[in-house]
């Protein structure tokens, strides 16, 4: 037993004192090393794009005065009155940078009001006219939303919220017409689109 321990200790000391580390064939073979590195690095497409989210566009014709609107803002501090102005500023900045495309990833409107969607649609057509394609998908605020309201003094009135068919129609030129595959789950819409250099699910 003592002899076995002695041999083991000698081996440990020898290994600890050895300055030679094991080598692998690819380290000394430049061709093999290059081949391994090339396979290990996937070829991703180069893309320059912009992303917007939670724009919460609100059609101010639905009301911005009165106690009901003030009470709403007290409970939900979105900049609804300025939402279109903020959007236009953002899109102007995006246009100046000339991305290949823009993604808007949901919550486009306050609560899915048809007129709010149409305001955004018009601005996206303006961007498209400058050669920049936009792709949109709905968020939980945008489709079949019972909170879509207009404000009248101290009272509110329910207004039409976009259904999934309305959403796909309004934004037909912003993803849905370009779809190479579509699917619908509950009230949401998903599609796979191709920008010519990459495919993505939206």
Automatic annotation (TrEMBL):
Residues 49-163 form the Calcineurin-like phosphoesterase domain. GO terms for molecular function: hydrolase activity; metal ion binding. Keywords: Hydrolase, Iron, Metal-binding. It comes from the Bacteria. InterPro entries: Calcineurin-like_PHP, CNP_phosphodiesterase-III, Metallo-depent_PP-like. Belongs to the cyclic nucleotide phosphodiesterase class-III family. This is Calcineurin-like phosphoesterase domain-containing protein.
